[in-house]
Amino acid sequence: MIRPNVETFIGCESSFEEASVVLYGAPFDSTTSFRPGARFGPSAMRHESFGLETYSPYQDRDLMDIRVFDSGDLELCFGSSEMALLDIEKRAKEILKADKLPLLLGGEHLVTLGAVRAVFEKYPDLHIIHFDAHADLRDDYLGARLSHACVLRRCHDLLGDNRIHQFCIRSGEREEFQFARSHTDFHPFAFDGLKETVRELKEIKAPVYFTIDLDCLDPSAFPGTGTPEAGGVSFLALLDAIRTVSQTNIVGADVNELAPMLDVSGVSTATACKVLRELLLAITE
Amino acid sequence: MIRPNVETFIGCESSFEEASVVLYGAPFDSTTSFRPGARFGPSAMRHESFGLETYSPYQDRDLMDIRVFDSGDLELCFGSSEMALLDIEKRAKEILKADKLPLLLGGEHLVTLGAVRAVFEKYPDLHIIHFDAHADLRDDYLGARLSHACVLRRCHDLLGDNRIHQFCIRSGEREEFQFARSHTDFHPFAFDGLKETVRELKEIKAPVYFTIDLDCLDPSAFPGTGTPEAGGVSFLALLDAIRTVSQTNIVGADVNELAPMLDVSGVSTATACKVLRELLLAITE
Amino acid sequence: MIRPNVETFIGCESSFEEASVVLYGAPFDSTTSFRPGARFGPSAMRHESFGLETYSPYQDRDLMDIRVFDSGDLELCFGSSEMALLDIEKRAKEILKADKLPLLLGGEHLVTLGAVRAVFEKYPDLHIIHFDAHADLRDDYLGARLSHACVLRRCHDLLGDNRIHQFCIRSGEREEFQFARSHTDFHPFAFDGLKETVRELKEIKAPVYFTIDLDCLDPSAFPGTGTPEAGGVSFLALLDAIRTVSQTNIVGADVNELAPMLDVSGVSTATACKVLRELLLAITE
Amino acid sequence: MIRPNVETFIGCESSFEEASVVLYGAPFDSTTSFRPGARFGPSAMRHESFGLETYSPYQDRDLMDIRVFDSGDLELCFGSSEMALLDIEKRAKEILKADKLPLLLGGEHLVTLGAVRAVFEKYPDLHIIHFDAHADLRDDYLGARLSHACVLRRCHDLLGDNRIHQFCIRSGEREEFQFARSHTDFHPFAFDGLKETVRELKEIKAPVYFTIDLDCLDPSAFPGTGTPEAGGVSFLALLDAIRTVSQTNIVGADVNELAPMLDVSGVSTATACKVLRELLLAITE
Amino acid sequence: MIRPNVETFIGCESSFEEASVVLYGAPFDSTTSFRPGARFGPSAMRHESFGLETYSPYQDRDLMDIRVFDSGDLELCFGSSEMALLDIEKRAKEILKADKLPLLLGGEHLVTLGAVRAVFEKYPDLHIIHFDAHADLRDDYLGARLSHACVLRRCHDLLGDNRIHQFCIRSGEREEFQFARSHTDFHPFAFDGLKETVRELKEIKAPVYFTIDLDCLDPSAFPGTGTPEAGGVSFLALLDAIRTVSQTNIVGADVNELAPMLDVSGVSTATACKVLRELLLAITE
Amino acid sequence: MIRPNVETFIGCESSFEEASVVLYGAPFDSTTSFRPGARFGPSAMRHESFGLETYSPYQDRDLMDIRVFDSGDLELCFGSSEMALLDIEKRAKEILKADKLPLLLGGEHLVTLGAVRAVFEKYPDLHIIHFDAHADLRDDYLGARLSHACVLRRCHDLLGDNRIHQFCIRSGEREEFQFARSHTDFHPFAFDGLKETVRELKEIKAPVYFTIDLDCLDPSAFPGTGTPEAGGVSFLALLDAIRTVSQTNIVGADVNELAPMLDVSGVSTATACKVLRELLLAITE
């Protein structure tokens, strides 16, 4: 019997029904202000994942042991942020309704807003843990309030003060840094303070949305992204941080901002795949 | 006296007041559905133009002999097509009001709509001559009516039947080709019929907006574009066609869809510069 | 209902049962002697095909009107040509047994041998029409008789004299050209003589295997291949030749030697997709 | 009012009169012996700087708070090192005469010599702090004494022993290392000893020319340079060292050896921009 | 007198007779399962080595002081692993017979097996020190037992338990890690334990074959390889480890898995050259 | 017996004594005003030539039948045009003295001047046939009289009027075109008039220096060059023209301006190799 060509992230071959985690891709980058191409991130990760092993020697766990369903990429409207966000939110809600964890593959960082809207509806006491080089806290960007540069500000509109926990931030306007110091749990440059934040979130049993902008990594480790920022964290530091965060009650997550057109050596895509593998293994433990 | 760094397309150093043609760039590609990057087209052309001579041996004319002002790139909002189009339209109107010819550098092809709106307001009997690989006649694209794939359809909404003259078209949905055969002056694949079209437009003294999607060129001559389509015209054929069109009463024009990120050898940018030089020399004759 | 991520060549979404043509990919390039990477050809074509329209204005036909099933890529053993060829042959036989036309996507040109073995078993009076820059008629290459440089010679071992019709050949050892002049129907450089060859094959109602090495195209049109050879045919000439060949009784076919790693602008992959679309539409007419 | 296209490094929009620092670019690489292209460094930095924020969270300072004038690139003669150096020297003198700090953007490292000649004329007790992977202390290179490989040796001809302070050096001929140990304040491999050197220079209130060859960075952080040398310093170490050096009396500076043609991911250009921003903010404190 | 063009790795210009070390290249990558191109590694290293100094400031030694002969690349059969391995083994034996140390430049890692067979014949008590990101301990890969993914397993077939010392390993199937823990001296992730291993090998005066898969380096330092694995060691750590290993009795060695087609910035080739220089200087001390 | 690694252009393995043609490379591009890198042209051609067959089906001749010696690349001083030209002239004279034909591989076009000086000394009635996109007839370029943009003007200084025959020229200042029309045998754009020129040169038995700037080819066929100019000739037209010119008494020749760094697909290097093969076969007939 000859079968059609099903392409999933490696080892994510569970059925929807059996799965505890559902991958969904948001190939969108219309508001990217510098170098576009993050739209191709999720399909590149799926495609190049066959160069990755399913086994993690870091966690001594294997993707073959867990149950993940890959629902592929949404077909999103380019040029209308609101329409794209609605489609993302709708898919996230379907997944949540089936009591599975939605794991979004971006795309530019704005896509997070669609997912957060859905998760926040289900978990009004939601916290967000945010790894990123950029604060993403502008109120608008050249007039647009739905922009990758504003996405955490829009999340703040929903969640309010002290519910967003930011790490690795090393770029933004002065106003964003000032806003962060007043309104978010702000940890610039690296992961200092992460363990304490996680301890507190565990204590209050907070539901957590975990968003990883891959440009939190140093450009030496992850050059393939639209706005690289020197001075980031190493892969091993990120890996350690992911395992720390996974001790909280994660109810939604995303990995975003891989731009394969800028990843000429393929190293960034391979690293993104490895981050996703480790994230999947950590949150299903 | 040390001067600041003014960067113009080579030879376009006239003042605004003296100029008969004004260049303006629209670094926008948010609705691009396949491979983005046309936003960088106008700045790349300006930047790489210093590898080009100002003299054209084809026309025995020199950019130093004519008067062109380069107003640089507009600062456009990514993620909102309507806001971007309004800014383009506004700039075109300013130029038209000063009785100069607005020459737009794209950007994706949707930017043409902003310019056409401005030119059509001044010249209600406007015709459009359109060189392109793609018909761009969809009524909507994944729900968006303001999309590069719909731009000539939106122009048709303004101008009505038989006022759009299309050449080189070799890609589209069946419905677009059917629409074209009923509603536009349609010449697929190459420049067959161009001379007759031009003769007729000269007879009726029609004002003409001339839009060149550089992907009308064969990908061998112009690989650096988002959606290359094999089977296009040669550079020399395009050059000849530009000189033919320049016999009409051109009141506005654009050159678009160079995507420098895809132009790894630099050949496409160099060719785009040469097309622009020849266009400037032809329309000012 | 959320579905898994099925990825096919655009418009090839028929079920196996309904299909008249079945695509199968052979991601193999182990014997490539110069620059490898053709292994990634079939998946790149599938992946990038979404930048292509399903409608052909050249033939006024649409992939949506025909029935093609895409069975994805075989999982082939690298480093053993014989094992890889057996797997290809096996898949071709399955398709032939179901009375469907097997259309192979390479991979390096050696993969053709697996398909030809299967087709030849069913059609002992088989002819081969071969478009290629290279004669591929060596008896061995550095000791290996199963090499891309020998593949038509191995086909000749099966079919014998005057059953292989070669076009566009412009590279090889002197001995290969001498062999060709004695043993094949040999048309160097271009498509001269193709119409007559096709007329004769139609007269004798010969079953035809049609193998297209995409490097028959000029490198200007198709740079993304392991061994580019200046002086090839244009895309439009190839398109015309495909439609001519499609008048014969084609019982198997392949398209090979796209090397996406060398296709930095993406133009070659886009062109390969367009060749495949036109081939599918022509052979199902 | 439509203005012409002025392009400066981001945030460097002061007038010449008001500025305390003046940027000038030297797009020259004619003596580069390995891989050329540093000529495009200054324009690439200017062009890509719009992807950078003007605010530095490291120093809590903003380019909008200081006064820098960007005079663009000199038009230098390729093929004659002496003519190019004279033009650089002339520009540096103009800037020094107006009592502003000349900050040169290279170009290959030889351009430093033009600037040092001008600064040395004004400050005969000049010291040089030199960050580089390469010693650049050859007496000649294939017969040329004006070569990037000789530039610090030529500076030594002017300044004499113990006035050149070298850091990060990890490549050179044995003779260069021997010369360095006898004639310069030599700190191979990293920044060991920098604090003490700076303390001594502060004590004697020495005027300092600060030259940063960006290849002092490890190639993982800065691949886009002609002669990458594994084993360099990290971005954060460089940032720290820049702030240390800025405690001295800096009277001239340069940043050189970015080769954008080799920076396919754009990471090196982005990093060079960030180095320049931090340097500007540090020296104007 | 005009001489022909002899191209060697820089400074390796000794005659065969005088040499104590002989370089030989194995341009083979037919079993590479992910991204091929390692075949071009040895010639790229030779070609780009002229950008490297012959002097090492790390060891204060110079290639001009030692005697190395570069015998160029073998002409290997693509598509037949066994034939290629025989040719490699034959060349290694010739070199060993002349009492010189064979230093192989790969190519994919499978080439090591040819060299180890030759060295093992001469030194039956051979140990292997193995630096690699991948365990390479599969018993077969898609049916092939001669595969890059199996090469250390094949070496284990020869040498047996506890004679293979593995470092930096961070990727493999669970079964490979289990095999390693039972059958090899296994040090995952980094160089922990290397000093002790070396001390023991010195004590027993074991002859050592030293194989360096360059992907042991972190992808930030070495992106140009077929299967990059985040989380590797730094260049300086590798340099230190090489000097440690060189205290043992090294009787054969190789450096492999540079894939120049993936090394768009040239940094990986430059780093591979530097690794080879340091290795040559260390083992001849 | 193990031999060192001799690397020649494929099939050019004759000894100096036996050879009738001697290749010599001039890896120089210091005066290139736009994009450098032609310095790597000759070594890239040598290196990539192993992807080419030695047999030409166009001429039914084989490099194995003729006697060519490849003397490798000169070691030229970067940054001093005059020193580089002297070294080239010296080598050309050595070859001429041995009554062999010097065939120079550039490098930028200025290198031709060194060879022409040598050939002109031996043949004072020398003519030059010049294929190029650019006139190269400036009297100086930014003050330099030894520049690629002036090279034919410098040759005119030696030879005087009507001894330089220019073809394919399509770029230059107005003054260059005016100079050409008065002082050279000038054929812009293509090869019109070549047959007549050749007939006349045969009649007067003129010794001919034949210089091919590969950018005479259209950028679609030859993108890998510093200053590509749309509107050039095809490979087959160039091949035909070479065979026409080879009917004259060629006493020196060169092929120049391949810039491998810009040849990302490798197509330009492959084409340059094919041009050289055909030139070698044509001039030795």
Automatic annotation (TrEMBL), chains A, B, C, D, E, F:
Record InterPro entries: Agmatinase-rel, Ureohydrolase, Ureohydrolase_dom_sf, Ureohydrolase_Mn_BS
Family: Belongs to the arginase family. Agmatinase subfamily.
Name used for this protein in its record: Agmatinase
Highest rank taxon of the organism: Bacteria
Keywords: Hydrolase, Manganese, Metal-binding
UniProt KW Transferase keyword: no
Species per Swiss-Prot/TrEMBL record: Blautia segnis
Amino acids binding Mn(2+): H109, D132, H134, D136, D213, D215
Cofactor: binding comment: Binds 2 manganese ions per subunit.
Pfam families for this protein: Arginase
Gene3D superfamilies noted in UniProt: Ureohydrolase domain
Cofactors named for this entry: Mn(2+)
GO process annotations (BP): putrescine biosynthetic process from arginine, via agmatine
EC code: 3.5.3.11
